[in-house]
Amino acid sequence: MTAKPWLDLYPTEIAKTLDYERIPIQDYLTRSSKKYPEKVAMHFMGKDISYKEFHEAALKFANYLKSLGIEKGDRVAIMLPNCPQGAIAYYGILYIGAIVVQTNPLYTERELAYQMVDSGSKAIISLDILFPRISKIIKDTELEHVIITGIKDYLPFPKNLIYPFIQKKEYGMTVKVEHRGMNHLFTEIMKIAKPSPVSYSFDYDEDIALLQYTGGTTGPPKGVMLTHANLSANVKMCDEWLYKCEEGKETLMAILPFFHVYGMTTVLVLSVMLGNKMVIIPKFDFETALKTIDKQKPTLFPGAPTIYIGLLNHPDLKKYDLSSVKACISGSAALPVEVQEKFEMITGGKLVEGYGLTETSPVTHANLVWGTERVKASIGIPWPDTDSCILGPDSSEPLANGEIGEIAVKGPQVMKGYWNKPEDTEQTFRDGWFLTGDLGYMDDKGYFYVVDRKKDMIIASGFNIYPREIEEVLYEHEAIQECVVAGVPDPYRGETVKAYVVLKEGASVTEEQLDEYCRENLASFKVPRKYEFRSELPKTAVGKILRRALVDEEKKKAEQERLTS
């Protein structure tokens, strides 16, 4: 066991070890519905939903799934933006012991098909406008049921009448699905299903609550198995970290997507556990966010650096009151110090950087929100019950303070493993340590710092993007002989995706054509924003493309431009 100098930094209000309730995640909703039945659980575009209504809707959804033959351990996919239906489905699935498979609504047919096949999902709930996409891939999957809903289903009058016209204008279509056969309408489910209590045989340590897909540079995306124990531990840690916040009195800003484990844990589960209110925004834009903060007065606002940067640089920022914000933990990418300082000056609240991965539910480290000195460029210190160290390439012994190696962690929030991939699971652990793939070091006080990513993952606007997945799509293009994808500096996104391409002899293709091709096969946030055509790519003596050499070129170029501007 490593020394834990960071424990000396803990304020007395934060416990170094925690007591866990050992209950399933859905029991948080049951408890809050009894304790705060009339309290607003969700505010959605002008509509308030109480904890009693939330709980009853989740039970209806659970019983309907049960009537379809969905059982404990079956996988049910949620392919929705932030909306009440997504929250209801999440807890409804858990109520019968099934496993949630969170799916990004931006996924293309190719990406969706892979995830449905790999997870073996038996049912999916999604938006009406996404139904055509699901219909095209369903024959190749194990999906037996498709549940369809629409944003308008939880809009107040008259927004529910107006929205279909807005949707048609924005997406160029409207989709009508009938409630029959394998197709089911969420609105009909809420009419006919009963909110009867449900139960099953529960194992706190072993039962999987969530399959959250993450990519990799050495293979296809992997399903991360997160148990009830993993998620409840991380939520309890988060609650402890925010010790000045009060149960039942906070309002959480739900900008981070629930289909990402960060938003799911720090908003969807934390809020319900404490009987707090979620202010849900289905489609993020900065003006809507500013208006919502001004009107709804959120006190907690988890986010990513690009969100805070965008808000701070909005031309109408001064028109809005952001002083309700008490605390924000920023994740997904490095938080610039100047952004932190400016945001705190404007809101009067605290903004700190945290760190974690999908495999860790997700948070492992964060800077203390209250009661400690500021440490620039640090991801902070490990959360309660979390141990961390820096390991060398072939050693299970921690490196000395200040030495750079791979950040490793242990804790109850660390995943059970990768779905149906025991070899990948084994390779990710070393003597009980989970290897993050990030290079960093620890200082003498116990603060941790990330210096580079061992993996080639790109983080753009808070999205994790994996080069190999994009490269595989590009290699299928008939004009491409060789390609490599890398993250290059971007003043707004942090990083952006760039593809370096070598064409086959005699072949030709334009950037516009490649962009169109990639948009047909990749979610929009993965599509390269830049293309560079080259006669050859830098390689090692054995022919491996040197991605890092290209990244270094871009960094030098960006630095030169900065110095001359």
Short summary:
This protein has 565 residues and is an alpha/beta fold.
User: Structural class from helices and strands?
Assistant: alpha/beta
Oligomer: single chain
Q: Within the CATH hierarchy, at the fold level, what is the topology of one domain?
A: Rossmann fold
Envelope shape: globular
Q: What is the rounded Rg?
A: 23 Å
What is the CATH superfamily classification of one domain? Answer: ANL, N-terminal domain
- Contiguous uncertain segments of 5+ residues: none
The total strand number stands at 26
Number of helices: 16
Task: Quickly list its features.
565 residues, alpha/beta, Rossmann fold, GMP Synthetase, Chain A, domain 3, 8-stranded mixed β-sheet, 5-stranded antiparallel β-sheet, 16 helices, globular
